[in-house]
Amino acid sequence: MSKILLIEDDRALFEEIKQQLQQWDFHVYGIENWEEVMETFIRVKPELILIDIQLPKYDGFHWCRMIRSQSTVPILFLSSREHPTDHVMSMQLGADDYIQKPFHLDVLVAKVQATLRRVYNYNHEEQRTTLTWQGAIINVENNTVTSNDGKVELTKNEMFILKNLLSKRNHIVSRDELIKELWDDKRFISDNTLTVNVNRLRKQLEVIGLGTFIETKVGQGYMAVDEGV
Question: SMART domains, per this entry (predicted)?
Fold first, then answer.
């Protein structure tokens, strides 16, 4: 049974979400003291985090930064705010998805299940734990890419995208295909979210000299260039 940390200060909504998730055998934990959010995260060791943006003391973006500084656990934002910059900000901080309030609880459960399947099952389906690309070593177990110019750690979304592109090196992978692979059902994800994730992946790879090898094919998708193939 997966543990979910639900960081939500609306008690009525917290209980509603908790009851729904418990019906699917998830263990749901909340925040009792808003001075001890990180302490609760460390103690619970959740497999997934649901977090509101508007919270007491510090907002959800703050806690996302703190969590991402020490963990790649999947994070799904919940928010009633409609400004597109909030969506973009959440993706740039390393969140896995952004769910607009009000939402149907069945949609929330579907997103949680899809994220957990993607994050925790794909490594078991892949026998090889390392890949090589442009002279770099991609470790799919610890989500790192190492080249002669250094080493970067990717989020699970970024690694999943990179693995999908590398599975079809020098061939275009359509945006629809990536969305379907990433979130199981493209009705539950926006096209803009994929763009943000790919841009963040490319920026990470630029640090170690590999950014230019992820090419955008306008109107088609993306391609991982491998001169060794």
Answer: REC, Trans_reg_C
